[in-house]
Amino acid sequence: MSGFFKSSIGRKVAMALSAFFLMFFLLQHLSINILSVLNPELFNEVSHFMGTNPLVQFVLQPILIFAVVFHFVMGFVLELRNRKANGVKYAKNNGAANSTWFSRNMIWSGLTILAFIGLHFVDFWFPEMNTKFIQGDWSGTMEGVEGFRYHEELVHKFANPVRVAAYTISFIFLGLHLAHGFTSAFQSMGGTAGRKKTLQTIGKAYSIIIPAGFIFIAIYHHFNH
Amino acid sequence: MDLTLKIWRQKDASSKGQMVDYKVTEISGSMSFLEMMDVLNEQLVNAGEEPVAFDHDCREGICGMCSMYINGEAHGPDRGVTTCQLHMRMFKDGDTITIEPFRAAAFPVIRDLVVNRSAFDRIQHAGGYISVNTSGNTQDANATLISKHAADTAMDAATCIGCGACVATCKNSSAMLFVGAKVSQYALLPQGQVEAADRVKNMVAQMDLEGFGNCTNTGACEVECPKGISLDNIARMNRELMKASI
Amino acid sequence: MALDSKVPKGPIADKWTDYKNHINLVNPANKRNIDVIVVGTGLAGGSASATLAELGYNVKAFAYQDSPRRAHSIAAQGGINAAKNYQGDGDSTYRLFYDTVKGGDYRSRESNVYRLAEVSANIIDQCVAQGVPFARDYGGLLDNRSFGGVLVSRTFYAKGQTGQQLLLGAYSAMNRQIARGKIEMFNRHEMLDVVIVGGKARGIIARNLVTGEIERHSAHAVVIASGGYGNVYFLSTNAMGSNVTAGWKVHKKGAYFANPCYTQIHPTCIPRSGDYQSKLTLMSESLRNDGRIWVPKHMEDVLAIREGKKKPTELTEEQRDYYLERRYPAFGNLVPRDVASRAAKERSDAGYGVNATGEAVYLDFAASFERYGKEQAKIHNISNPSEAKIKELGQEIVKAKYGNLFQMYEKIVDENPYETPMMIYPAVHYTMGGVWVDYNLMTTIPGCYAIGEANFSDHGANRLGASALMQGLADGYFVLPYTIGDYLADDIRTGKISTETPEFDAAEKEVKERIAFLINNKGTHSVDYYHKKLGKIMWDKCGMSRNAEGLESAIEEISALRKDFWQNVNVPGTDTEYNEQLAKAGRVADFLELGELFAKDALVREESAGGHFREEHQTPEGEAKRIKDFQFVSAWEYKGEPKDAVLHKESLEYENIEVKERSYK
Ligand SMILES: Cc1cc2nc3c(=O)[nH]c(=O)nc-3n(C[C@H](O)[C@H](O)[C@H](O)COP(=O)(O)OP(=O)(O)OC[C@H]3O[C@@H](n4cnc5c(N)ncnc54)[C@H](O)[C@@H]3O)c2cc1C
Ligand code: HEM
Ligand code: SF4
Ligand code: FES
């Protein structure tokens, strides 16, 4: 079994497993965030629940962090090996003749996402951690804000147009990453279904809806407040 | 038609190579690509120069010997063909054609366009067989029924000619399509079941040892494969390896 | 030396079993001390290497390609025969034996052919056990098709890739032994001479085609499995590297060369398109199961078609001449190859060829589209299907059977064979002649064996379709492993053969000198220049039909061309590098000798038999006329120049088959 994850195929399976988790997380994340547009009250409720529930905080959150780190570290490992496997570069290589740009550039779309994740941590996660663990404030409230603070904070962040632009670009790259990644993960897991019509359609839909959803939220708050 | 050729020349494995320009004239559209190369070589020999070395043998798309990267694609721009089956009618008068060897760290250049694909053989040594002695004392060929579907799918996988276009095309120089096809052929047949687990483990281990890259599922191999080997074979191999490891 | 075919006594059906019961065996412990060299890894060499290694011998196998899997056996499309009688259509060992002897125009050795038929069924069992994906029917049983010259369906196939699948089977068996260290594989190596020590074959001299190094390899026996020599014609369906070198070298060291003039010209190949042509492509004979061969009946239609004023599809049934069906109503389009080829040549010579070169006839599938289409319509309960629907349904069936061949045709010719009939013309395909061997498959050099297409084979003067694969695997899997053991039983105490002996020195020196000469000559003409010239002489004068005058002048011309070659050939580069021109030069040099012997053999054989058609010897209807006095194998002994070769005759007795006029009418 340990041999399995050392093999090229095993690593891809691990890659796909971590990606499945991330894709599930994104779906969940978007479902909550979209509430900030539809129903700020409910958004605050759910955010508070997620932010203070011990199961989420002490089990799911570490798994998520592990999955993210694992995914990109493994991405680098695979990429390095692939580079080594290549011989001399072709003088002329017509990649477009046989594959999509985003399938050939997962590392670049991945790196953009990584940069975004960095930004995201600075924006939301570090302040959250600071509030909760360093200052020990688990109330979910903030001075000058009635009820929970989450919605207010979110809206506040998207006031800055540069940030909104950065988010938008990052999510476009996430879309590209997923446009190939979604079906690819099924193929890595040994499913030929990855190339069947329905799954391809779902993959396409997913890779458009998820990033589009996040972008919409950012832009919505930017212009509505 | 008249053409300009940019061809990779490299004296031997240890020398450095470079692209060199040549001109050929009066090429007919019904020539095969290799016949065009013959014209160039005859021209070079008569001029006292060394001809361009390239691998070829059957010249009918089945031995898998020919292996050129033409204008950025393995076996050139046509689909479902090897270089020897590529015809010059795919090109136009005045075209410049770039011709390079199949590239991969696991396929070192021997000379010019000739590369060493023994890594493929070594992967087969690791398990590309069914352990049955060739004594002829096996059961009757019709004793085990095999469904037409299984036989046909195994046959489709078995059509791989071991040319290496999949590796040459892959941005990661991955050999998954080739190995997947072989693993699949046996995995689909009842005769192959007994050793299935060891076979896939050993072949994948050897594949990794040879220094081929991972599979990113770009699907480029399937497009360039002259025999239309399907990506399903890669998925099947992934499944077989998971099954064998768990 | 008198020829002794060493055929065992007794009734034909018992010979092989009796023989196996009485030969000497080598015990397993001793096999470990015995080395065998196998030159060639096609069906014959690959299967022999694997089996010998399984038995315990140490095998060294050689191939000029970069992998054993690429030997030219890979190109065989149609199928492999076996007397399984799965179809219950009356097949049997005897019938396969009978068909093969008759198909060979009564010019093969009865006992060998019977043994071949006897072991044929085992081949299929063996290959299935190895995982060869033969075609199956919906019930899960093996499917069969029929081939030319027979009245039963006994041909097993794997799409249009039977040769590849069988070779991959043998290759997989080799892989298993390579992994165990029992086979040492020398890829990209070419055998350039055999070494005789104390009258026995004890090794070879080989050239590493990558580095140019000349190597010595010793063994207790040497097996030649280097395939056929059809490339003596320059244009053939053989691979570019196919050659006679291995066979010719053993011939020069004492092995007799048998029936060089027996060549098979295959009727269904894609016609030549221009002078640059480097090889010809076969369209599998299986196409004749479903295609009908014709040319226009009237000259004006021929001309109109050539000028592009008319399309073949515009001709009505009455305007077409289905000449095979007309001349041979019993076998129709499925007459043997020699007959079909000559008939195509006859029509083309008469001016009815349908392309610009005048050398092409039609192979038409329209009737099959309709027949299969109607059948499918019934199966799918389509009432009153339109003509287009029928054609579509029929085409699907044909596509499933021959799709890859149709695609190949379209790629080469740039015409869609589903819409317009294919054009075909005969091309050199197989050589029935080769190194003479006895019942043990041993040549006249003790310890030197020849198997597969390289030997003079079991096919007499004409080979039936799907029989070469059968022979190659029979020789390698089931015959040689027994017969060679009988010989090697004497070698259990010999010990390793040293390569540091005067015999190896001498052989290596000879090889090196010849290579040095070729490299240093720096003449005026390329190797291909000579090869093409030789090919033209061969095709014009030793092709589908031959006559004394032409053969005599061929001998003169080839001899002169050979002289010219050794004076003026230009081989670029050096001998210490990858140098394809050098390898080719050596092969062409040997073809230039073989070609002359070929013509001489054809001249001496004053009869027509199978693929050898002498214009002087034909029936009033233009069929081949055999002559009883020539019921023998011509085995030639090397004496220097090909013209000095000495003829030895192995007379052929038929005790189990009545020698009849071969008729397919
Ligand atoms: C296009 C085509 C289609 C055919 N279709 C059929 C068919 O459907 N059914 C059928 O029964 N038969 C068919 N045949 C005939 C049949 O394929 C061959 O006769 C048979 O495969 C020959 O096998 P072999 O092992 O004797 O030689 P090959 O397969 O030709 O192998 C020769 C081996 O010898 C090696 N070699 C040659 N010279 C040297 C040297 N000097 N040094 C070292 N190695 C050397 C080569 O590397 C190769 O490994 C077909 C032939 C052709 C050309
Ligand atoms: C939430 C964020 C992310 C999601 C949802 C995601 C999703 C995916 C998916 C589904 C795949 C396909 C897996 C497979 O083919 O088996 C994939 C592959 C990949 N991901 Fe991500 N990814 C994310 C972040 C990242 C990051 C931050 C990187 C950083 C470098 C990255 C790099 C890669 C690479 C290189 C691959 C291709 C691996 C290969 O096939 O060789 N991804 N990703
Ligand atoms: S899978 Fe296709 S491209 Fe790869 S080696 Fe086989 S035939 Fe060539
Ligand atoms: S030369 Fe054999 S496949 Fe191209």
Please characterize this protein's 3D structure.
The complex is a heterotrimer of chains A (225), B (246) and C (665). Chain A is 79% helix and 0% strand. Chain A is mainly alpha-helical and 225 residues long. Chain A has one domain: 3 helical TM bundles of succinate and fumarate reductases, CATH 1.20.1300. Chain A starts with a helix and ends with a helix. The model of chain A has no long low-confidence stretch (mean pLDDT 92). Helices cover 34% and strands 12% of the residues of chain B. Chain B has helices at residues 33-46, 118-125, 148-158, 165-169, 176-187, 196-209, 220-224, 232-245, and strands spanning 3-9, 18-24, 68-70, 73-74, 96-101, 109-111, 114-115. Chain B is elongated, with a radius of gyration of 20 Å. Chain B starts with a strand and ends with a helix. The mean pLDDT of chain B is 96. Among the domains of chain C are: 268-428, no CATH class; 500-628, Methane Monooxygenase Hydroxylase, Chain G, domain 1 (Up-down Bundle). A 5-stranded parallel sheet of chain C has the order 5-2-1-9-17, with helices on both faces. A 5-stranded antiparallel sheet of chain C has the order 11-15-14-12-13. In chain C, strands 16-10-18-19 form a 4-stranded antiparallel sheet. In chain C, a hairpin with a 2-residue loop joins strand 6 (189-197) and strand 7. The longest helix of chain C has 27 residues, at 387-413. Classes of the chains: A mainly alpha (225), B alpha+beta (246), C alpha+beta (665). The interface between B and C is large, with 79 and 81 residues. Bound molecules: flavin-adenine dinucleotide, protoporphyrin IX containing FE (HEM), iron/sulfur cluster and FE2/S2 (inorganic) cluster (FES). Residues 160-166, 177-178, 181, 225-227, 229 of chain B line the site of iron/sulfur cluster.
Layout of helices and strands:
The complex is a heterotrimer of chains A (225), B (246) and C (665).
Chain A: H1 2-6, H2 8-38, H3 40-52, H4 54-85, H5 101-104, H6 106-134, H7 150-157, H8 161-188, H9 197-224
Helix pairs in contact in A: 2-3, 2-4, 2-8, 2-9, 4-6, 6-8, 8-9
Chain B: E1 3-9, E2 18-24, H1 33-46, E3 68-70, E4 73-74, E5 96-101, E6 109-111, E7 114-115, H2 118-125, H3 148-158, H4 165-169, H5 176-187, H6 196-209, H7 220-224, H8 232-245
Parallel strand pairs in B: 1-5
Antiparallel strand pairs in B: 1-2, 3-4, 3-5, 6-7
Chain C: H1 12-22, H2 28-31, E1 35-39, H3 43-55, E2 58-62, E3 80-81, H4 93-103, H5 110-130, E4 155-156, H6 162-179, E5 183-186, E6 189-197, E7 200-208, E8 214-218, E9 221-224, H7 245-252, E10 257-258, E11 263-269, E12 292-296, H8 299-306, E13 320-321, H9 323-327, H10 337-352, E14 361-364, H11 366-379, H12 387-413, E15 422-431, E16 434-435, E17 448-450, H13 468-488, H14 502-521, H15 527-541, H16 548-568, H17 580-604, E18 632-637, E19 646-651
Parallel strand pairs in C: 1-2, 1-9, 2-5, 9-17
Antiparallel strand pairs in C: 3-4, 6-7, 7-8, 10-16, 10-18, 11-15, 12-13, 12-14, 14-15, 18-19
Helix pairs in contact in C: 1-5, 3-6, 3-13, 4-5, 5-13, 11-12, 15-16, 15-17, 16-17
The structure holds flavin-adenine dinucleotide (FAD), protoporphyrin IX containing FE, iron/sulfur cluster and FE2/S2 (inorganic) cluster.
